[in-house]
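Figure S4 source data
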Amino acid sequence: MLLQKAVKSGVSFMKTKGLKVEHSSETSVVHCGNDVELRASLVLDAAGFSKTLVEYAGDKSYSPGYQGAYGVMVEVESHPFPLDKMLFMDWRDSHLDDAPAMKAANAKLPTFLYVMPFSPTKIFVEETSLVAKPAISFPELKERLDLRMKHLGIKIKNVEEEEYCLIPMGGELPIHPQRTLAVGGAAGLVHPSTGYMVSRALSTAPTVADKIVDALDSFTGKEGTRKKAVSAAEADRMAAAIWASLWPEERLQQREFFCFGQDVLLKLDLQGTRDFFDSFFTLSDHFWRGFLSAHLDLPNLIKFGLALFLNACPDAKFNILSKGVTGLPIMLGRVANAPFYMSYD
């Protein structure tokens, strides 16, 4: 339905691969496979994490954490999960009692179980690493999930679908502003502490689209019926306005807080992770839902951090202090001067 509406509105689709983009003073050219060249007034990269078109400060500056997950949609003989509930963040490790090496690895780099039941005989199950650097491998995630299923007594009759998920989280944003525009993963919209992105991308899209329309309306040159910039300065100015709508100062400050959260999570072992989320999910809905959905502004994030610390058990308080002591001044410096480039490593 959406594609049909796009076609009726004059959108053209082409099955090819964008390889690189070159910007002149007036237009941009996307070089694609099969020697195809596409000319445009503005180019927007929505290709996720390929890093093909958008520019970064350098390879060394992009050092994200990774959320990895292996999941399966399966038909089973039976399962123990209520059909009216989804299971989220089950950090239990009793399924690894007979696999001491795997249990020791999980104690250092923990993973959790996610379950979505569809019927008494159909479920989606997923083993997820919240964030790790480097990522936990898919074979290890699969082995941990297999051991969980056996421990729960779930016998799989048929695997309908497999999911392999690897999400870069945090790291440096693309250089902005730059002539190549971006949305979604290409623009760094993934939540650095949770791996969530869809709601942020959907809520941002209308704002970016409006700014693109404004930019095209502001161009003073023409090529046939299409408007174009008359100078590099004009094209740069329009691109800068669009990037500013995507990453205003308050969003940059918010992201630094989330990157600091990732830095703490990366240093927690299994018990530390359990203690952290025991505190996290006993906060008010306003705080924990706002944090997960990236709806808290900086003042509310500060209140969130204080509430989390005060609500934490003694061990969790110690972990927050000890794991965050090096990253806190960096985060505060970046919040005060956003944006600039500095690694948390």
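Figure S5 source data
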Amino acid sequence: MVVISILILLFTFNLDKPVSFAKQGTITEDNVHVRSGPGTEFQIITQIHDGTAFTFIKRQAEWVEIQLEDSNVGWVHAKYLSINDQVDTPSTITIPHENTQIRSSPTTDAPIANFAKKGSSFQVISSKGDWYEIQNKAIHGFVYKALTEPISLPMKESSFANKSIVIDVGHGGRDVGAIGASGVFEKDVAFLTAQELTNELSMLGANVRLTRRNDEYIPLNSRISYSNNFDTDVFISLHYNSVPNLPNVTGIESFYYKESNKKLATSIQKKVFDAVQADDRGTSFGDFLVLRQNLKPAILLELGFISNKAEEARLLTTMYQKKLVSGIIQGLGSYFARSEIGKTEY
């Protein structure tokens, strides 16, 4: 009788316990590549088509590992699948990565509303597809779910790993560059951007070199030689505009000299625009010495007008600088990914 009672008790306990099922999903496009790892650099295993069913295994950034009905396992880009997610939404989350982007609405096209620090905690208000709506005392917005998962990527999976990037910090020393509405010097604003960009790129595994690390005058020819004498993957010259007699002019623009560098300029221009939602002045040919005599992929960025009082004020804030840098990095990442495979092919 004791044994029977125990069995009945165990059986009753298990009935009250929630049953976990593996998440299922379907492919939403035709001719989707299944790869051996989470990135376009990995081998294509097979192709699958719209409506193909799969079992979700795990997610890594924008890639999902799946198991097909024939038991094959591989990785697919998340944009080509739909997951029937029946997992309970957590009540709170802790941000695992530094400077995690918080957006104003649940889409990557939305402006970045804030950046969350690593270790900060949030209440989850709702779950909308791939996004959580979150808030704490200081921040309210939407975070991409994948960014809330601790991920440790091998360096070979980072498009920035071992890339050599030269950041040309515009002007310096006696060459102050443009002068802003409040008297701020272009050389100082460019240095703010360079410092933030250097920190972020270094954390992503890039080898970053600055044409100047202090407030010093560096001739243009020396900046060009610095780029040409190294195995430079990309040269980015950072600048800010000023038109004192047209104080209402605002916006960002990117320049290239060689036609082969137009895609690099366009990629970064688009992502910076997406990040800051400033006036988009486009991508143009620019006959600048640092581009014309540069033997490496090189562009020049004009990241705003310090002659405009409102824009100057934004440019001097840490938040806006982080947004600018976020856009530059996303544009670089897209450019590197396309360069490695000739074209984007998921």
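The two ends are 62 Å apart (CA to CA). DSSP finds seven helices and 19 strands in the chain.
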